[in-house]
TrEMBL record:
It catalyses: L-proline + NAD(+) = (S)-1-pyrroline-5-carboxylate + NADH + 2 H(+); L-proline + NADP(+) = (S)-1-pyrroline-5-carboxylate + NADPH + 2 H(+). This is Pyrroline-5-carboxylate reductase. Pfam families: F420_oxidored, P5CR_dimer. One of its GO terms (molecular function) is pyrroline-5-carboxylate reductase activity. Pathway: Amino-acid biosynthesis; L-proline biosynthesis; L-proline from L-glutamate 5-semialdehyde: step 1/1. HAMAP family: P5C_reductase. The gene is proC. PROSITE patterns: P5CR. It is found in: Cytoplasm. Gene3D superfamilies: NAD(P)-binding Rossmann-like Domain, ProC C-terminal domain-like. Its EC number is 1.5.1.2. It comes from Cellulomonas alba.
Amino acid sequence: MTDDTTAPYVAVLGGGVMGETLLSALLGGGWTPERVEVTESAAVRANELASRYGVRTGASNAEAAARADVVLIAVKPNVVGSVLADVRDRLRTGALVVSVAAGLPLSFYESRLAAGTPVVRVMPNTPAVIGKGASAIARGTATEPGHLVLVERILDSTGLVVRVDEKDLDAVTAISGSGPAYAFYLIDAMAEAGVLLGLSRDLATRLAVATVEGSAALAAESGDHPVVLRERVSSPGGTTVAAVRELDAHGVRAGVVAAAQAARDRSRELGAAYSS
Ligand SMILES: NC(=O)C1=CN([C@@H]2O[C@H](COP(=O)(O)OP(=O)(O)OC[C@H]3O[C@@H](n4cnc5c(N)ncnc54)[C@H](O)[C@@H]3O)[C@@H](O)[C@H]2O)C=CC1
Ligand SMILES: O=C(O)[C@@H]1CCC=N1
């Protein structure tokens, strides 16, 4: 928990899905609404965030950056360049720049900001909004250990936070950044299957959600290998081995691997496309 009066002032630039997630993480981690502001180019969305969280949302990127100890960039990768142009001459000496944008390398930021600006990349995910997220952070060339500690403090209420080298961030994006979508895809498919088998949609969805939630919790709490946990469900000659044989026959495992590779490749593409 952060002491309100000493909390660094944070400007979140971009109030979309991830900007709101980070905002709620900050407020959940002890920041008061007076120590956080959000810039958001869509006026309706800016007003929505202001009324929901009681934070200031009307300033320009440059104005917000000028009073911030931490500038947290949460716009789409194709907009990051223009946001950096907005803020580069307004950043306070020593201000930390943190970005959640997929793909864009630290060198993209460092080459566009004053020499020596500390930059940290974060790859969070949406379950952060309920404190069940998984985030990886990677440091830039001018960051001190204290900067990583500060980012960890900002992310404290979001769930798991791990430090990685930047070279691993495309893979992290493919597994935990995009990963919630794979889990929701599975939940949706299980619920749909339940409806096909005659359950009501409401019941099928509740069973699917509880099953995925419970399985993830069991894997986390037991520490057992997923294969061991799967074997424990699989009675000899029973229903589960019949089901898993179909998953294999339909290439579900290969599909997950291909999906992650595609996400990794897309992360690289985004970085290359907007770095030029
Ligand atoms: N959604 C997710 O699960 C994750 C997203 N990210 C990253 O977070 C970033 C934002 O993604 P989302 O929140 O999903 O997108 P989003 O489209 O929901 O949010 C972006 C927001 O930025 C606003 N915006 C656009 N131009 C602006 C400007 N010049 N100044 C201020 N605000 C501006 C938009 O109106 C929008 O509300 C991306 O770079 C993405 O790679 C990273 C991890 C997970
Ligand atoms: O889809 C995206 O590009 C972002 C990055 C990871 C999750 N969402």
